[in-house]
What does this fold into?
Amino acid sequence: MPYNSVVLVKQVPDTAHITGKAMNDDGTVNRAALPAIFNPEDLNALEMALQVKEQYGGHVTVLTMGPPRAAEVLREALYRGADRVILFTDRKTAGSDTQATSYVLKCAVEKVGDYDLVFCGRQAIDGDTAQVGPQVAEKLGLPQITCAEAIEELREGQIVVRRALPLGTETVRCSLPCLLTVVASANRPRPPSARRMMACKLAATPFDYPELLRRWPEFETETALDRYLTERGLKIDVWDGTDLGLEYGRVGLAGSPTRVLKVDLVVLHSRDSKTFAADESGVAALVQELVQEYVL
Amino acid sequence: MTAGREVWVFIEQEEGRIAPVSLELLGKARELADRLGGQVCALLPGDGVAPLAQQVIHYGADRVLLADHPELALYRTLPYARVAIELVRQRKPAIFLLGATPVGRDLAPRIASAVSAGLTADCTDLRIGDYERQGRVYHDLLYQIRPAFGGNMIATIVTPDSQPQMATVREGVMRLGEPDRRRQGVVERIEPCFNSRDLDLQVLRREVRLPQVDLKNAQVIVAGGMGVGSKENFRLIHELAEVLGGQVAASRAAVDAGFISPEHQVGQTGVTVRPRLYIACGISGAVQHRAGMDRSAKIVAINTDPNAPIFQIAHYKIVGDLRTVIPQMIRAYREQGR
It folds into this structure.
């Protein structure tokens, strides 16, 4: 029996690998210098969905919310095997916190419709909140299985999932449809397939049409180009709030209960410190001081 | 906001033991409630958990909402969420705190979504303060303070129009208070009602090991990073910890490299520690790591790179190779007659 999946993904700044190049002289991080990447655990979520598709059949739809450039992660998803990708982008949703974001994603998942499973990464590395998955589940009225590590069984409308806990595992059974948040230990995400990269390299959103028309003047009009891409499954659908019938009071800053009062940059201040030589007498002096100061 | 002034704490327990973070939160909730002139109310769901109520009171609760029900024996999202959501809707607490454990991080967003509350994850500090927006002043809001952006920033979040103001709080960052066995409080029994969908999910198996390492309570910690170089070299870290009577910790890089198991990981993803002495060996000192150990009373850093950021927070520095420095430390310590 086939199972249809919707995978929620996010493009994030790569906060995990901050190199010297992304550091300002004052010890703070230069956000703009960080590359934008596919949120790592969302790749694990996509991999789990693709494995369901390979084993049981069904469709994998990948959905992201973000600025137009977030379409980059959707192309990545196509290269890995997604059947359909959708970009939700709407300036009015900028500044959404997890509550507002989960409302938008809930509406988008409902518009996709006909799903058995919703997947997302456990958390995104730019916020580490792990809140959007459960909040989407609540708004869709679905049960949630967080920290999913493996699908052990999928049959007769029921799923058995192994969850990763800090000191072990828990295996649960629940009825479909349900939402899973997937952890990094779940699998090793497949790399983009060279064949699919070739097949999908033209994949484009309507934002890309003016540029594409310059490159391929033979299409003459955006309508012709749109038809060509759509027929070949290369059009990245773009939705906005109107497409979803969003209540705008529930999105963006207005729809976000949380307010950032202030943000302090973490600056490394040198402490009063003592340096000891890396030799027998230096190390001995350090140990002696630690003992005398009752630290040891 | 003039409505409720109650500060609620979710009490997480397993097999009759209360999670340390819940007890830490009771102390913090007491402080916040005293500041607000309100009460501390603890939500204690489980099966056969009535005997825990007194302990909850000793750690600072004025009132315990005891939801004792066989369906609450093991944590499951929907039955637990049902209990919490109903109570929050009825009683409108001002603040609701949960531990940022896997359970708290599963449950809190579910509750927040249902009651349209703001929620801040993984707070490392909580305070009370005012907030002004568009000429309107909100008094006595909860300042929810957390590392942001991979730990490179510290954000202070408020949820001015939210009832309750919700936060999950990292384990180990709030000080565990002393229980006061003379404290009196009220225990109120709650009769939960579930529907069939709440109870659909079943736990088939649970295999949870007892924690092998107790970094949170360690006084001395010897930690190794990528600079240790190999799993074999990590023996040195274990040896030094053993000689000093300390515990072994590691940075994420060392754990990712397979030098040591994840339960030893200190940092933003990992455990937060505050030992008397933290010896960082071959750890560069990424923000991610510092977030978990910069409250250590004294920090010794050993690193071959004189520009490693760890040296900026170290009290004692040795620029050198840990493979020679650690054996020297062990010898020197023994020579001190220890």
